[in-house]
Amino acid sequence: MTATAPRPTLEAVAARAGVSRATVSRVVNGGDGVREPLVERVRKAVEELGYVPNQAARSLVTRRHDAIAVVVAEPETRVFADPFFALQLRGISKELTAHDNQLVLLLTEGRDDHARVGRYLAGGHVDGALVFSLHLDDPLPELIQRAGVPTVFGGRPDWSGDRRGVVYVDSDNRGGARDAVRHLAGLGRTRIAHITGALDQTSAVDRLDGYRDVMVDADPRLIVEGDFTPAGGERAMRELLARCPDLDAVFAANDLSAAGALRVLREAGRRVPDDVAVVGFDDMLPVAEQTEPSLTTIRQDIEEMGRLMARLLLRGLERDAAELGIGAAPSSVVLPTTLVRRASA
Amino acid sequence: MTATAPRPTLEAVAARAGVSRATVSRVVNGGDGVREPLVERVRKAVEELGYVPNQAARSLVTRRHDAIAVVVAEPETRVFADPFFALQLRGISKELTAHDNQLVLLLTEGRDDHARVGRYLAGGHVDGALVFSLHLDDPLPELIQRAGVPTVFGGRPDWSGDRRGVVYVDSDNRGGARDAVRHLAGLGRTRIAHITGALDQTSAVDRLDGYRDVMVDADPRLIVEGDFTPAGGERAMRELLARCPDLDAVFAANDLSAAGALRVLREAGRRVPDDVAVVGFDDMLPVAEQTEPSLTTIRQDIEEMGRLMARLLLRGLERDAAELGIGAAPSSVVLPTTLVRRASA
DNA sequence: ATGAAAGCGCTAACAG
DNA sequence: CTGTTAGCGCTTTCAT
C-alpha cells in the first residue's frame, strides 16, 4: 500500500531530448516520419525518465481507449460451476493482450445491474464489448444494442429483435449433440435417452435439436428436462429409469448432469457402459476424468471461443476506424466439437 | 457491431439548463452547494440529453480512475482447474461495483508478461491493484512494489523483500489443516498421512505446517508431496500405500488431490472411511460432492476473500486521499475455515 | 521532417 | 451560491 509518485510527462521527455512535444508524441506512437537520430534521442529520454503515456490524456483526444468490456450476465448460473468462464476469459485475455487492449470485466448479479452496465457501455469508456448472455429472456442484448457499442456475443443469443449485424461465436452444439447420439447408435444402442440442459439457454436447446436430428422418431418419454447441474441429472435419470426401464444409453446435455446420471445408474445397479452407455458434453476435465467410469463426452474448445470473440471484435473495430465497406463486417462463427472417448460409452 | 454516436458534453448540458459548466459539474458530482431549483434544471437536462461524463477527461484532472487492476499470475496452474478464481472475482466485483469502481483484469502467461503488467501498473491507469501471486519465486510482487501502486495480495505472498506495508488476505490454511487432522484424530485414527500441495505455494506450505502442528512426531514417511492435481493425488496415494500399508487416514492438501487419492484407495480395495478416512481442503463443490464417497473437507469462503481484498484496497485508497495518519493503514486479514463433514471421514 | 498552437471534456481554484 | 478561468497531458492540423 505505498503511495504513487508523480510521473514524467511528454513535456519532460521533450525537454530532455531537446525536441518538441509533437516529435516525442510521434516517436512514442511508432516514430514514422521522424529522422533516425532524433528517434534515438527521444527513445533514450523516454527510457531514462521511465516515461509512460497518460492514457486518459490520450483517450481524450483520440477517442479510443484500447479497452474492451467483457460482460458476464448472472454468474450464479453456470459460470461459476465450472472452468468454462475462466478458460473463455483466458482466450479473450490472450488475444486482447496481443493487441494492447485492456480487459474491463463487468459481472452482473441480476436485473439491478443491467442499468449500470448499460450506462457504462453507453458511456463510451470502452471501444467494444464481449457479452455472455446466458438466458433467453435476457434484456441485456437489447440494452447493449441501444448503447451502440460494437459487440460480439459468446454463445448464440436468442434474439427476438433485429438480427442484422449481430455477431456471435458459439460451439456447434447441435452438431456435437448429433455426434454424441450417433456414437451411441454406432455402439448398437437403440433406446437412447436425453437429459436436456436448462432450456432457457440456447446451448441446451441446440443440443436437444441435435439429439432429435438423429432420433427422428424417438419415444418422447426418452427426453427429460435437466438443468445442467448434477442434482438435475440425478433427478432426470431417476425419472428416465422409471419411465423407460429398457433404455440402453443416455446423452446428457453436459458433463455435470452426466455425473449425476452416472451416480443414479450405479445405485440402480445398471452397469456403465455395459447396460447403459453414457455420453456427456463439454469435456470439463475435473468432472469428466473423475467420474466412475470416466466420461465419454463432446469437447468444445472454450479458450479458442474466447480468443475468436476478441479477434472478431478487434477486427470489427479496425474496420470501423478505417471506415471501409470492404473487408465486410465480421460475421458469426460456429466452432466444431470433437468426441472424446473414455470409458462410459 | 454498430457504430458509436457522438455524445453530449458538459457544455451541452450547461447550455440546455442555462447554467455554467461548473454548475453542471457540481450537480453531476453530488450537487452539494447548488440550490435546489438549479439542481433540478440540470438533472433534467442531463436526463434529456442522456449525458454521461467522459471518464478520460475527468481522470485527466482528478488523477483518479475509479478502476482497479486484478492481476492473476500464471493461470495455467491452479486457477483454471477450479471455480476458485471465478468466485474470488465475483467477490471482488461485487465490492468494487458497490463503490463505483471498474475491474481491469490482467492475466499473465509466464514471465514475458510481467514486464507488460509492470508497465501497465506503473502507467498509473488504475488506482490500485489486487494481486494473486501463486508461486514462491514470483517476481511480480517486487515489480508491483516498485511500480508504487497501492496493492492488496490474495494469499500470503512469500516475500524475501521488505514486508512493511504488505497487505494480504488469506484463508487460515494452517488452522484449517489442524482442524482436518484433529478431526481425523478424533475419529480414533493414528496413522494419519498427508498429501501436500505444490510446495512452491504458501498455501501448501501452511497446510503442511498445520498438519505438523498436530502430528508433532509423525512418521516422516506419512508425508508425500503432491501438486494439487488429481493425478498428483493418485501418485502420492500409491506411494503412501507402498510405504505405509498400515495408514488409517489421509489429509489431502486440496479436494482435487483427495479425489485422486480416493480412486487409488478404491482400486486398492481399501474402504473409505472404514479402513481409511479422508479429508480434503477447499470444499470445491463440483468435486467434493461428486466423489465416491462424498468428501469431508475444509471450507474456505472464497468469495468473501475477494470481497475483503477489494474492501481493504478501497479503504486504503480513501485513506491515501484523505492523507490521514489516523485510521491506520489496512492490515492483512486471515479468514477462518470450517470443517464440512460428508461421508469420507 | 519538425515545431507551434489549438483543443479534447472536465474539475478546481478563484472571483463575484 | 454561481460563473470565469486556467489547465490536466496528449494528439493533430498547419506552418515552416
Automatic annotation (TrEMBL), chains A, B:
Species assigned in the record: Streptomyces ferrugineus
InterPro entries in alphabetical order: HTH_LacI (IPR000843), LacI/GalR-like_sensor (IPR046335), Lambda_DNA-bd_dom_sf (IPR010982), Peripla_BP_I (IPR028082)
Protein name listed in UniProt: LacI family DNA-binding transcriptional regulator
Domain of life: Bacteria
Segments forming domain HTH lacI-type: 8-62
Gene3D superfamilies hit by this protein: 3.40.50.2300, lambda repressor-like DNA-binding domains (1.10.260.40)
Stored PROSITE patterns: HTH_LACI_2 (PS50932)
Classification via CDD domains: HTH_LacI, PBP1_LacI_sugar_binding-like
GO molecular function: DNA-binding transcription factor activity; transcription cis-regulatory region binding
Keyword set, alphabetical order: DNA-binding, Transcription, Transcription regulation
Signal peptide as annotated in the record: none
